[in-house]
Amino acid sequence: MDTPRQISRCERMEANCRILWGPGEYVIDLEYEDATAFYPYESWSTMVRRDFGDNFGLPLTMTPRTYRTAEAAWTELDRVLEGSARDAKRRPPVSEEEQRKIIAKDKEAAEAFNNNPNILMEGIEKVEKYRKEHPQPWEKAQA
Questions:
Q1: Which residues of 77-110 are buried (b: 16+ CB within 10 A; e: fewer)?
Q2: What is the pLDDT of residues 131-140, one digit of tens each?
């Protein structure tokens, strides 16, 4: 059950998303990663994406790093959205035409990703190949 503090935080975060990216529905995700040999702690991160109904857009913003607790990740995303929304209020408003262009680009990119799910694996393979060709100092010591 959500506490009143969590509900007000979620409402505030959604309101800040609307200030930043216009009216619409947004998905605010909290992601969890188990501890690994590379990063020996449980870690949490958050991201915001637009909800198009049949799919989600690409991340609009994410926490800049992982955090050891879910509360810390939520707090950081809330802080980032609050600051960005405050800055956005100082700028001139975005026209409806500009908003449509932004949404169309985001939806187009999300559809391209959904139509080619292998693109993520291709990127991972490139990173793994690069890591094999350019090992880090601690990886050289283990070899």
A1: bbebbeebbeeeeeeeeeeeeeeeeebeebeeeb
A2: 788 777 666 6
